[in-house]
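Pilot study result, target chain (198 residues):
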Amino acid sequence: MTAPLRIAPANEASWVELQLILTGTAGRCQCTRQRLGDHDWYAAPVEQRAAILREAAGCDDPRATRTVGLVAWVDDEPAGWVAVDARPAYRRLRNSPVPWAGRLEDKDDEGVWAIACLVVRHGFRHQGLTYPLVAAAAEHARAQGARAVEGYPMVTGGAEVTWDELSVGPVGPFLAAGFTEVSRPTKRRRVMRLDFDA
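Predicted structure:
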């Protein structure tokens, strides 16, 4: 990527900028499915999902002390989003077999954060933007006091994958950011983790 890139906490972005990124399926999800869990997510209309994300992200409030994601700008155009928060904040992860297969982990451990979703806006895809987004999300988690951060990416084998599946990201950006493989819960999914030095 050669164009100027800036990544910042979502509270430094406007709500309009974030919505320019979250279009199509991502716009319907409003990055709330992992947070709410399937039952509550399906029951909530899109407008309610958007209200939940808007409050959690703190958009338009640069003085907010907390946010649940980061926004990337390329040439000052909003281009990407990554959701990152303490792992227990994501109810869907708690009930999914993916993070826990073969592991004895405390599901309520606030010191372990998770990168739950990655979205790159149309027009900015296939430029490697997920690499700096994952690295920035890991750094954000560390700066917020996380002991570790996890991701649950897919092995794509170079194949084109729909966003619905790839919202968790591909393995490559996690490896590049220093994550190591913890487990292989399915044929195409990996649990990746980065532990921070105390």
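One observation from the pilot: The mean pLDDT is 92. A full batch analysis is planned for the follow-on phase.
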